[in-house]
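INFO batch 0412 | record 1 of 1 | parsing
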Amino acid sequence: MLPWFQNGAYPLYLAPMARFTDRAFRQLCKEQGADVMVTEFVMADGLLSGEHAWRTLDFTEEQRPMGVQIFGSNREKMAEAARRVEQRLRPDFIDINCGCPADKVTDQLAGSSLLRDPQRLADITGAVVRAVPETPVTVKIRIGWDADSIVATDVGQAVQAAGAQALAIHGRTKEQGYSGQADWAVIDSVAAQLDIPVIGNGDVSGVRDVVRLRRESPVRGLMIGRAALGYPWLFSEIKHYLATGEIPTKPTPEVRWATILRFAELLLTTQYAHKTPDDIRWMRAKLKALTKDMTGSRKVRAALDTIVSMDDLKALAVAQIENQKSAAF
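INFO prediction complete | emitting tokens
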């Protein structure tokens, strides 16, 4: 059994999200109490053809237990990519992405496209398991391609038989994307039937969701994605509530802006260290994600669209904190 599930533990995963859950953002979430994290996904072909793709897989010892997520449609390439990841990075586990709904991924018969070919999905899982005998392999899926092809149970049984040690299920279909509601009845059904841990994912947006799911669902852990993307403090709020029964106070504007500034500085010292602080326009989308639920967040996001340098960002932080103080009186 994966050690983070032992003794009744109920781990909170940070869901991997392309372009957002980089090493810098994962650091923020780890400090707030995220138990398990996974890198942004990388295509197996990219890991086999050069060095550029490896930059995405950068992580620190502090961020363990840490998984590396790969995707692809060719079992031999997936197996070789996993072998190289094991040898080079020694992650705590390797995760196979069979859930990404992006057309540029499914057009390559990868990601959630594999849900239309469960045998290929199982063959890829088995090949990766055999390639990395010293490293646990896990799989992430959606419940199906569309409402007429809900295959999560069959796929779950297949990857369990192929040697996967855990299964994460996003409770939407590929066709849903991120619209509608996650179908937790399907997630719960699969979790009740498998011997390996099932991690539930979808519509976990607050403390009360976690409390309810721990009480009602047979999943062994939860994966939090978009809710944490805008509010990494969610992990610490959940942990605090589970320990004390109280929801802590929200971070102050000073704390939130200090976090945004620190995040920007982390970005410039990790996998984006080749970029300059004199032009940080590329990080605007990343910074705007952290303004979720801020007072006047729409205006804050508009202001972030005007920043060019780190000096601009620092000046904006000072101005916004002063505005918040003025509004309080």
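INFO post-check: The two ends are 55 Å apart (CA to CA).
INFO record closed
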